[in-house]
Queue: 4 jobs
Job 1
Amino acid sequence: MKSEISTNDKRLKVTRVFDAPRPLVFSFWTQAEKYQRWSGCKECTKCEVVMDFRVGGSFTQNMQLSVHGETCSFTVTGAYTEVVEPERISYAANFGTVAVRVIVEFFAEGKGTKVVVTHEGLPDEFFGQNVARGTSESLDRLEPLLAGAALVTQ
């Protein structure tokens, strides 16, 4: 399934349904070794994540990107402001020159999980389009990992 993307003013919402139970999906957002396996756009060739997953804890995500044959780095940092397992994660994210609030919600839908990722405080449409693409492509990468993990846990 592809992501549904909606925007209004300075807010972006990306919604995706996964065929995996909510606790499993939630775990892929809370453990650095899992998160770094799927987070990043198509151009991301390597992702390293250090996280202290708790309210008040922080994270650093370093990504290596290959764009038009050139390698570059991109770092996102942040701090967790809310954790309600397995329902919701909120954090302040710093994309270098731009800081936004991110809310990730996990809804049980039968045997699956609907994930809604909301970015608030986007500075402009161009930034929002890039975040939408990166988020959607990351969720594309997450889907097969969840499918494999769901089979193992059944």
Job 2
Amino acid sequence: MSKPHFVRAFSEEERTAIEAGLRAPDAFTLRRCQILLASAQGETAPVIAAQLHCSDQTVRNVITAFNADGLAVLKQGSHVAHHLSHTAFTPEAQERLRVLIRLSPRTFGQQSSLWSLASLAEVSFKQGLTTRLVSGETVRATLQRMGIAWKRAKQWITSPDPAYTAKKSDETD
């Protein structure tokens, strides 16, 4: 079992801000202040979590963040994932991707003559545009940053009639 994790000692400014946070209008700041004060009083993460109806990992995360960043832990951050999809394609790879989408997928051994985001991701990896296989969403976001609006290709209905091509060309002549 690992030793309990506690918050570091507060400075006078930090203690004042944390105590003021107990009267904050938003629940995020209030909960974080409650966690920090309980930890400063010697309560362990599981006990604090039980009192505040949250997970003990949440309590440990708050304590760790406060010990590293101080009062910044009281401000709610972004909910966007921490990984950055724009790092998947370098600027050179983006230009190669711009060229790639104008070529036929069959050139690269794909079954369809239409690009899908998944097939673009696969071919991009095989061609060395990315260092790892990325998702279709990463490819779409990259194309969007490049100013290219991606829309799924439409599958056109063709007739099962063997003479369809001949009949079609006769009507248009």
Job 3
Amino acid sequence: MTGQQDLAEVIEVLERYFDGLYHASSKTLASVFHPDARYINTTDGDYMNYSMSEYFAIVDQRKPPAENGEERRDNIISIEFGNARMAFAKVSMTMLGRHYLDFLTLTFDEGQWRIMCKVFSYTKQIQEK
């Protein structure tokens, strides 16, 4: 049975996830992703399916949105529990000129919630004049 503590822990993982993306910190992201996790981009024409080491190498080469002065815009849309060891989060964010929609599967492993799979897509952000 999942409860308020599980929900609070998953929200905390998601907040660290957003922090890691905003600051382009593979160290922060490593604290929320399971070592066996997968990173999968389903955007048409830009398919990717990476291990965490491949993904973190990309993150380490990014200029952090925080350093660019980008406004931080992220949102937890929904969280659903399948059981006491499995959860699903739908989240969105805007950064690096794109709107992202992420489906994150989380597992409770070794006493903590961690992201096991990130499946996402993006659209280019429309620049306002």
Job 4
Amino acid sequence: MKIAVISSAEISMSNKIITLVQEIVLFLSKIPNIKIITGGCLGVPGLLVKKAKQLEINTIAYSPDRDGDKHNKRSDNLALCYFNEIKHFSGLTARSLAMIKDADCILMLNGRIGTLSEFTIALEEGKRIGIITNTGGVSDHAQYILKVAKKEFPNQTFFSSKPKEVINWLISQSE
């Protein structure tokens, strides 16, 4: 199962978010054949990938840069040595679309404009999206965004402040 984690690349994180990320990785480590996909950035996805590497979980970077040299020169990217597999794209939009299409499901928490963009791409691509609420950022506004969008996405999203509930829902929808 490939799970794309969409979240903020912001490097300053609260202790609550750091603890939450650790809880998420420990729970994901119990899922057989799990692969974690991120956009190769720092912040929450970067911390999650670093913890995943410690637990020997396979990770895939979808870099918005055309090669490893460009990727490693960007200040908001995680070093590629943390990933088992790397895919390069030219630009954030191409990267995000490929990442979402390749994922079996999406796990979303906190986030900024990039997370919002990936959320809407995932909706339009018909992906199942588990949103961990009370984490700040756009995740706490996703239900409102769906309401004002005035478009139905039945059985495609699940909201909870409990990471295990969200991940269990994603697993149950992927079986």
